[in-house]
Write a structure and sequence with these properties.
- The protein is built from 29 helices and 23 strands.
- It is α/β, with parallel strands linked by helices.
- It folds into 4 domains: 4-195; 209-450, Rossmann fold (3-Layer(aba) Sandwich); 458-640, Rossmann fold (3-Layer(aba) Sandwich); 674-751, no CATH class.
- The strands form 6 sheets. Strands 9-10-8-11-12-7-13 form a 7-stranded parallel β-sheet, with helices on both faces.
- Strand 11, helix 17 (394-408) and strand 12 form a beta-alpha-beta unit.
- It starts with a strand and ends in a 9-residue tail after the last helix.
């Protein structure tokens, strides 16, 4: 019989062993070569490990028992087929440990823990990476069975596939191992998916950096022509034009690949940094640009700007600027191709979240790593750097970004309105000095002009007295509108928005925005807010959570921020008087605190940062500057009882030991365990009668659902019920409205004496 790699299923025919292995070998080597073009220190070992792993990754499928399973389309034997390729590559004739590691890791759960695997070496015996579990069907361990029949597998394999003989030396870094596994996994999983009709061949368009830079120049010039009027607006336009030119024309040495950009609100950071990246990409022959943003809700806004500015005549915008985040779905012609361009990082310009990007760098799972090999040879724009992740994760992420620049020709820009230069702090790097970081804007005079303009844009004030809902309502309504009020929890935002409506008699002048609303209702609210901000109406309020803290192009007259941290306060300042349209009225940003007790609840994670901010206000050192932000970060690190340093050390040690599953777990940016709760009663009823395989498209479910912590889903206390038996999908059975969302069903329970619903 001709050996198979995959059996017939899903209405698709079987696939031969030769076809699959040949396809995987071709694609994996192609992916590795494309990445290796950008290697600065040599790529022979990298290429060798990928080629050897691809050649022998499915060797165990040639076992007669496994072939019988495939031909009869059943899985009775369940031999771990990756063990054969691993055994061959570890054999004395090969000694290809890195390739063997790739083979044993190319299925779930992904990269194995090398620290634990090394414990399998002893007394002259090496069972590292091997499957030593008993297989009851064959009556022995998989390792023993494979060792007995390995020569037969190899003989059959070489009937169909040429002998692979490229050698590689051991000692890869963790990042290199992730990149190598990415090449193998993408080739293997991609060929399987294409065979079963679940994917198609897609190839991203070329970057064409020089042409897109000229298109961006024209776009920015048109923006300048459309700018109006006042003396301050003309002054800000002139500053934007100078900053754009400074970024666009910045010349760097070949080894300068870590760049800092402090660009205050309204100075054109979005386009100026992109001009720099396109210029660098054109000069260095780079292939891709990543824009990494802190929050999902600001991706679409940036994507629209870049599609308007960078797409060339005759191009499809979705194929050039791809949005990659958890809620992206595509409809219509080309939907599958566009989704793949996004999910596989194939497009020339990828706009994604910090969670997606940095958790991919730290990943060990095959699904997360599949796209990583497309990262070498890229420009990276880490926008709102301070908000990208918790501080203890930055030292290891920084090491990876340094390695990407040093070894794989990547170029990174770290940007923010008030950029905290944490890489200069000994608290972040106690064991050594990070690589050189250069300023994107060389002129200190120009940077100082931008800082001066930022400091005059808003007044930052504090109300130190604890507020009740009533006193806070009076304070908010006493200030000029339009007003923005930000709370640290979903509960507090909903409670205060309801209080303003019910107790202050301003029913039609209150908007509420938080994750208590479904994505559909949040989108409707955002559109109403934009319309209100463009209108002549001023006496109204938006009450929200931090989902509007960064990157959203809202501009209010006055803002209030529940005390959190200095960086958070300054982010809210970026939603006030963005274009200096309220400058004549002395716009204000207020830090406030509410009293304990009552229905306004506290977020426990912000206790220390609140204390630090209060101390800085008392000392009079709060200011929208990088120095102040850096000082706040330093104080937090020095007063957290060593917890941050402990986590920094734990991540570094785990990476050095090859404990990649531990690293992935420690580097999770979002650690909350949430569940999807369907709000629409009819949809929930339909889903309760369907098998999961018959569920409607994910977007349809997500648009009418909310995310709630798993620990809060107690049907005995809250109006929820499970859908299905796996615990991943729930239905909301209580009141819901488009104003405060599911909190319409929770607030009455809170008033009746229940504990707070959550602190999201």
């Amino acid at each position: 019989m001709i050996p198979l790699a995959h059996s017939a299923r899903h209405g698709c025919p079987e696939q031969t062993y030769h076809d699959h292995v040949a396809n995987v070998l071709r694609d994996a080597v192609g992916y590795a070569q494309a990445a290796a073009r950008f290697s600065r220190t040599g790529s022979v070992d990298f290429l060798g490990a990928v080629e050897m792993a691809a050649a022998y990754h499915d060797l165990g499928k040639l076992d007669p028992l496994f072939q019988d399973d495939l031909h009869k389309n059943h899985l009775k034997t369940r031999i771990n087929h990756v063990d054969a390729g691993t055994a061959h590559l570890l054999s004395p004739s090969q000694r290809q440990g890195e390739a063997a590691y790739l083979v044993c890791s190319h299925h779930r759960p992904g990269l194995r823990d090398l620290f634990e695997e090394r414990k399998q070496i002893g007394n002259g015996i090496n069972w590292m990476f091997r499957d030593c579990k008993l297989n009851e069907v064959i009556g022995t361990t998989v390792r023993e069975h494979i060792d007995t029949h390995l020569s037969n597998y190899l003989a059959e394999h070489h009937r169909w596939i040429p002998v692979a003989s490229k050698k590689s030396k051991p000692g890869f870094t963790g990042l290199t191992r992730r990149l190598a596994l990415s090449c193998l996994v993408d080739a293997d999983h991609g060929d399987t998916a294409r065979h079963y009709g679940k994917e198609c061949d897609v190839e991203g368009a070329p970057l064409r950096a020089g042409e897109r830079l000229r298109a961006l120049d024209a776009y920015v010039e048109d923006l300048g022509k459309a700018s109006a009027g006042s003396e301050r607006e003309r002054e800000r336009l002139f500053l934007r034009q100078r900053l754009y030119a400074a970024c666009r024309n910045r010349e760097l040495a070949p080894d300068e690949n870590l760049v800092a950009c402090e660009s205050p609100v309204g100075t054109g950071k979005t386009t100026a940094v992109m001009a720099h990246l396109l210029s660098v990409a054109a000069a260095r022959g780079l292939r891709r640009i990543f824009v990494v943003l802190p929050f999902t809700n600001i991706i679409d806004q940036s994507v629209k700007v870049y599609r308007d500015a960078l797409v060339l005549p005759g191009e499809n915008a979705e194929e050039i600027v791809a949005a990659h985040h958890h809620r992206v779905e595509f409809d219509g012609e080309g939907a599958l191709e566009h989704r793949l361009l996004s999910q596989r990082w194939e497009a020339p310009i990828i706009v994604t979240t910090a969670v997606q990007f940095f958790e991919t760098l730290a990943a060990c799972s095959t699904s997360a790593l599949r796209k990583l090999h497309r990262l070498p040879g890229s420009c990276l724009f880490i926008d709102e750097t301070h908000a990208a992740m918790p501080a203890p994760l930055w030292p290891q992420m920084w090491r990876w970004l340094e390695e990407l620049g040093r070894e794989w020709s990547c170029h990174s820009v770290f940007a923010s309105g008030s950029l905290a230069r944490f890489w200069e702090m000994r608290e972040f790097f106690p064991s050594g000095t990070p690589g050189k970081v250069v300023e994107l804007v060389e002129s200190e005079t120009l940077r100082e002009q931008a800082r001066t303009m930022e400091q005059r844009r808003v007044q930052i004030l504090s109300e130190p007295e604890g507020q009740t809902a009533e006193s806070l309502g009076n304070l908010v309504l006493s200030k000029a509108g339009p007003r923005l009020v930000i709370f640290n929890t979903v509960q507090s935002a909903a409670v205060f928005a309801s209080h303003l409506r019910e107790s202050c008699g301003v029913t039609n002048e209150i908007e509420h925005l938080s994750t208590a609303l479904t994505p559909r209702d949040r989108a409707d609210t955002v559109e109403r807010v934009r319309a209100r901000l463009k209108s002549d109406q001023k006496d109204w309020c938006l009450v929200a959570t931090s989902c509007v803290e960064a990157g959203v192009d809202f501009s209010f007259r006055t803002a209030f921020r529940e005390s959190c941290g200095l960086v958070n306060l300054l982010q809210i300042a970026g939603r006030v008087n963005r274009h200096e349209e309220y400058s004549a009225d002395s716009p204000e940003v207020w830090d406030f605190r509410h009293l304990e007790g009552g229905l306004l609840n506290f977020h426990p994670d912000f206790k220390l940062s609140r204390q630090i901010l209060a101390g800085m206000f008392a000392e009079g050192v709060v200011a929208p500057t990088s120095i102040a932000c850096g000082e706040a970060m330093r104080r937090e690190l020095s007063k957290d009882y060593g917890r941050a340093e402990e986590k920094v050390t734990a991540i570094h040690d785990a990476e050095q030991k090859g404990q990649y599953p531990v690293v992935a777990d420690l580097c999770r940016i979002i650690s909350q365990d949430t569940r999807t709760v369907v709000i629409c009663p009819q949809l929930a009823e339909d889903l309760s009668h369907l098998h999961p395989s018959k569920y409607p498209p994910l977007r349809q479910i997500m648009e009418r659902s909310v995310q709630i912590w798993a620990t809060r889903l107690d049907a005995a206390r809250w109006p929820v019920k499970p859908i299905g038996s796996d615990g991943d999908l729930w239905a909301w059975t209580g009141p819901y409205d488009s104003f405060v969302g599911y909190m319409a069903g929770v607030i009455p329970l809170l008033k009746a004496g229940q504990k707070g619903f959550d602190t999201l």
